[in-house]
């Protein structure tokens, strides 16, 4: 009798266990089914283009006329264009300018979007309208609206210059280093901090424009935090400052990583990036040479993302659901 009961328990255990594994497999298959169009698009469309791009970056071409017919001859040059790109001062200078823009804008965008998200997450009248207002620049800065915005006088004044009323040329900065130095004259503040503050203030138009998506991601993270946690903090007598640094900030730290990676990619691939401008200009005259520059730029982007993600991952707090 005991043997029969043991075999029966084993049968039902294996039966339910197999069902559970089968359910997990079905979920995995459903996930692969949803991403299948994206995978097929990469394999059938993007992968051949990438392979051709690598081949172009290692090939030189020459147009000749044979029997009154245009003929193009291709010659394999290896890594010649890559070496020339590193030895070209204008290209390295554009890369350094792009990295400098990244260092200045990415922390400012993340901090600003987090601040706005925390404010807009509070219970207040017209909260939905304020959220829409802060997201409007994301729509304006894309596609057809971007070209309309570029020709707009007010946006051009905000980006390119401000009339100081002196009758001369408009200044391209809201404040100068001298203004900040005079403000911090009584403080022991280094010149690097002064330069950073000046750069952030002068780039406030771009910072607001590029913070819409990050703000929505932070809002989603803030709304996923259980209100009972904040109620427990209030009962324990925690202040709003302590609640933010002990509860809110650790809970949304994964969103900081996501926004950091997104902002870096957005900054590197923006049309206003100096390196992107230089590569596009070079492509009009020397396409193969510009292709090699593009691959160098791509590797720099991947390396930067890996470094930043590795640093931020060590400070990320993941809440356990079990």
Kindly summarize this structure in a few lines.
By secondary structure, the chain is mostly helical. The chain has helices at residues 2-57, 80-87, 89-120, 127-140, 143-150, 153-160, 177-183, 191-202, 204-209, 212-223, 227-235, 240-251, 253-268, 274-285, 287-313, and strands spanning 59-66, 69-76.
User: What is the share of helical residues?
Assistant: over 70%
Rg, Cα atoms, Å: 28 Å
Arithmetic mean of pLDDT: 76
Secondary-structure element order, as H and E?
HEEHHHHHHHHHHHHHH
CATH fold node name of the largest domain: MetI-like fold
Tally of distinct domains: 2
Instruction: Please give the count of helices.
Output: 15
Runs with pLDDT <50, length 5+? Answer: 15-19, 161-171
What amount of the residues lies in strands? Answer: under 5%
Distance N to C terminus? 38 Å
């Amino acid at each position: 009798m005991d043997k029969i009961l043991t075999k029966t328990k084993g049968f039902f255990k294996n039966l339910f266990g197999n069902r559970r594994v089968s359910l997990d497999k079905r979920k995995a298959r459903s996930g692969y089914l949803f991403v299948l169009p994206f995978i097929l698009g990469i394999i059938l469309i993007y992968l051949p283009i990438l392979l051709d791009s690598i081949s172009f970056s290692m090939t030189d071409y020459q147009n000749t006329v044979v029997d009154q017919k245009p003929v193009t001859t291709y010659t394999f040059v290896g890594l010649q264009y890559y070496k020339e790109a590193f030895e070209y001062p204008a290209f390295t200078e554009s890369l350094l300018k792009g990295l400098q823009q990244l260092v200045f804008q990415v922390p400012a965008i993340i901090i600003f979007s987090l601040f706005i998200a925390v404010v807009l997450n509070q219970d207040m009248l017209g909260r939905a309208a304020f959220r829409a207002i802060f997201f409007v620049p994301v729509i304006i800065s894309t596609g057809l609206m971007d070209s309309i915005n570029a020709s707009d006088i007010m946006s051009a004044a905000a980006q390119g210059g401000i009339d100081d009323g002196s009758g001369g040329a408009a200044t391209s900065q809201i404040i100068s280093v001298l203004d900040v130095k005079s403000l911090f004259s009584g403080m022991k503040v280094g010149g690097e901090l002064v330069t950073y503050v000046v750069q952030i203030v002068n780039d406030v138009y771009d910072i607001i424009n590029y913070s819409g998506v990050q703000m929505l991601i932070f809002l989603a993270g803030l709304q996923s935090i259980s209100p009972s946690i904040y109620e427990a903090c209030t009962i324990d007598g925690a202040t709003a400052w302590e609640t933010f640094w002990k509860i809110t900030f650790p809970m949304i730290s994964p969103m900081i990583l996501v926004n950091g990676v997104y902002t870096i990619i957005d900054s590197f691939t923006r049309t206003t990036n100096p390196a992107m401008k230089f590569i596009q200009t070079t492509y009009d005259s020397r396409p193969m040479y510009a292709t090699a520059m593009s691959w160098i730029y791509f590797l720099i982007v991947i390396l930067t993302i890996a470094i930043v993600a590795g640093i931020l991952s060590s400070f990320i707090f993941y809440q356990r659901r079990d």
